[in-house]
Amino acid sequence: MESVSGDVNIADVQGPMRLKSVSGDVQCTDYVGAVEGSSVSGDVDIRGRVRACELHTVSGDISVDLDPEAGGRECRLKTISGDVEVGLLSSSCVCDYHTASGDLECDEPARIIREGRKDRTIIIGDGRSHLSVKTVSGDLTIKPASSSVREEPAAAQDSSEADVESESEDDRDPERTAPMAPPKTAKVRDLLERLAKGEVSVDEVAAKLDESRRDL
């Protein structure tokens, strides 16, 4: 499903789903399955039971209810300046959070096993599933979630897991040691236009913005 500037509202859907938006907001309720998608400035809000996900935005916020299976595929969320809110339906997760200047707030009982200037890892419960969140300046909030969505049939669940491919990349971004400074407006606009056309990825945009900050 694709949109340029129009908002997208979806309800009561099961199975794999792909989303792409430029400036339109995407809202999905009562969803069960695996989802992947990207947005430039539009917000992405998915409520239900998300089994696996790959969601990328530039300035749009991401809000998602996660119910990943133990030992299943890692859930990945990436933004540049957008905030990320994760609602956990099962209090069992290992979360890796990489950020340049974002803040982490966790409303679930958790243990911090790594806390650096840019990388933090927390364990919620017994850590049976894995969540990776990467931002430049976006904040991360983790909280309990509630959902009345019924469990999807096993066959549909297996299909959703098979249809969403995991992104191949290194687990860690290169360290950014220079002080943060605003990149040039013209360069940001050019990068956003190229991202909207699919010429560059969210990771490439983040890396180029970091380079521009170091050059200032």
Distance between the termini: 39 Å
Mean pLDDT: 81
Percent of residues in helices: 10-25%
> Biggest sheet: strands, sense, closure?
14 strands, mixed
Overall 3D shape: globular
The number of strands is 14
Low-pLDDT segments, ≥5 res: 152-183
Task: Note the total helix count.
Answer: 3
**Count of the domains:** 2
Q: What proportion strand?
A: 35-45%
**From the helix content, strand content and strand pairing, which structural class follows?**
alpha/beta
Strand/helix succession: EEEEEEEEEEEEEEHHH
Radius of gyration: 17 Å
Explain what the structure shows:
- The protein is an alpha/beta fold.
- 17% of the residues lie in helices and 40% in strands.
- Strand 11 (110-115) and strand 12 form a beta hairpin.
- The radius of gyration is 17 Å and the shape is globular.
- The N and C termini lie far apart (39 Å).
- Residues 152-183 have low confidence and may be disordered.
Compact summary:
With 216 residues, this protein is α/β, with parallel strands linked by helices. The chain has helices at residues 154-163, 185-196, 202-215; strands spanning 2-3, 8-14, 17-21, 26-39, 44-57, 62-66, 75-78, 84-88, 93-98, 104-106, 110-115, 119-124, 130-134, 140-144. It starts with a strand and ends with a helix.
